[in-house]
Amino acid sequence: MSVTKKKWKVFFIDFGIKILFLIIIFAPISILILFNYNWQIVTIGLVASALFSFICGINKFQTFKIGKDGVEVKKAVEEAKDVLGEINRVVKDYVLLSLLNANKIGIKPDEIIESVDEADKYSIIIQERNITDPEVSKQIKKFKSNIL
């Protein structure tokens, strides 16, 4: 496909999306006006349609200004994803260090039940956080084998 065909394809897709959003906004309002509903109901329909189109197209916006203070929607979402990624890395490091320390200290014979519970907690954390680090897997296996 040539460059101009790709540009036209992208243009028509973007144009189609814009037309779809306009239909989503104005079709319900046109129906409400056609059946002679009160202006309050038409306004509620307009606000609901605009809100729906905003939510569907939220990834298109860099910022969304409300009043004098700006609310940066997309940047806040991206920063939250970055923070969650950092938290997952910290949790992985914490689990690894805890397992290393537990393996160094060893397990006392009278604390086997607590150690089994601790191993289960580590396994749950590893599964919930999708930790696939081979070093963590090696240490959890070593910890479980020390219990037995």
Automatic annotation (TrEMBL):
Keywords: Membrane, Transmembrane, Transmembrane helix
Domain of life assignment: Bacteria
Transmembrane segments: 12-35, 41-58
Protein name (database record): Uncharacterized protein
